[in-house]
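Pipeline run #58 for the internal structure catalog. This entry was flagged by the ingest filter as a single-chain record with no existing model, so it goes straight to prediction. Upstream metadata was stripped on purpose; only the residue string is passed forward. Reviewer on rotation: M.T. Logging verbosity set to normal.
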Amino acid sequence: MTQKILIVGGVGGGATVAAQIRRKNKDATIIIFDKDEYIAFSNCGMPYYLGNTVKDREQILYPKEEFAVKYGVQVRTKAEVTAIHREQKAITYLTESKQYTETYDQLILSPGATAVMPPIPGMDQTRTFSLHTIADMDEIAAYIEEQHPKSAAIVGGGFIGLEMLENLHAKELNCTLIDRSDQVMNPLDQDMAEMVHEYINEKQVHLLLNNGLKEFSNEGKTLHVASGKTVAADMTIMAVGIQPNVQLAQEAGLSIGKTGAIIVNEYMQTDDPAIYALGDAVETTDWITGEPRNIALAWPAHRQAFIIASHLHGQPIPYQGTIGSSILRLFEMTIGATGANRIELEAKGIPYKEAKIETLSNANYFPSTAKLWIKILFDAHNGRIYGGQAVGYAGADKRLAILSTAIKGRMTVFDLPELELAYAPPYSSPKDPVNILGYKAASMLAN
């Protein structure tokens, strides 16, 4: 009998799992439901469209008609799934005009997350924005085009906050970055974040740390922060985080974990073996600490899609957890982290040491050489690598990729000097910075 598979939500989770299932199963009936208009687009490309690095809006969209034909799936947009009836193996969904019911053999939940928009007193929603959907992006683009703002406040120093800082700065807006913590980019340790702070200040961006936003005044154009300072801004980007969309699963009686996301097993099944879940809304296991973790990144969602498609096809391949490798560009600087940082290791009570070097990306006489900082955190006894961080103006992405591979390979600091990494003056040095970092870390355990 032909399988009937319903998928709730698109983008990196839902659209990817649909494509993966079709590659393995040519006969299944696959139906995707999404309450919005688009089921496949690049979230990560949106800031760069707003900054005009990506010129054409269509470049970050995958037309639903084209997707439906290519993968042989039914796509139902502007169709909000409102209930799961587990005993009947059916869902209820609403369109603009009517309520419908659809049965399933297997159900896959990819509801994603919602940008947090805290209820700040005095907020004017006509000039205050989040960025998580295409509709959000279009709203920001229209405001910039029509209102010609001269200044912007970005509240939150994470991925979206820093990417929007770069792209609004590129539009020649006078920018202020506000964060309630003492650093930007929480995956970084404080000492690595300090390089980012210095660079932001060099770019003549106003950086306000340890300063939560308290209220707005002047029709939302004046921001009041915890220190008593005020910030004038024609527009504000709220980038304070996202919240997993779990209401549908919760109302169906599926378990929600302590991270606030849907609990799944190693095959991405919920409590109900006929219901799978993936992406921003699920709780998985941290590769290093073994703690529950909710990770809103593209790689985990794509890997989880493969896990689900394989399991449905009778090929059980367990999801082994995540190390949370992440990277972003901030002007000319690259910032990346993988694995555990100080805070995570100390919270778990894991004894560790750390080694850091300031070096150059490649041969010091070559014109393209640039500053690079690399750091690793490792087991204080056997040297197993727990985490890595890289900040720099060239070559940081390559070194971060090496360190994330080393972590997944359960390598130790004693293995890093043994890595035979390709060398030519435009790319590295005879001893790559990763080799040098390994020598330094190994010497710390030899004493």
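catalog note: The two ends are 66 Å apart (CA to CA).
catalog note: The first strand starts at residue 4 and ends at 8.
status: ready for reviewer M.T.
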